[in-house]
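Entry 12.
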Amino acid sequence: METKRILLIAGGALAAILLQTASARLHAEAQPASALSGQVTSAEEGPMEGVVVSAKKDGSTISISVVTNAAGRFAFPVARL
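Predicted 3D structure (tokens):
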């Protein structure tokens, strides 16, 4: 009886760890990494949608541009900067 109880507790702990790991992995996949992010706002109008934001890596001659969303937020993907 004691062995079954220990196995049940160990199995439950393992299941909890696996569930937490899977949840963290899904969260990481859902939110792609960004090299640079922010929000464009106006003192009079608040968040500004459709603003083109450009950035350039040090030493590069190539600029990368992204457009703000409805909340005025932008993010440059890591692979691009």
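Annotation: The chain has two domains: 1-31, 33-81. The chain has a mean pLDDT of 79.
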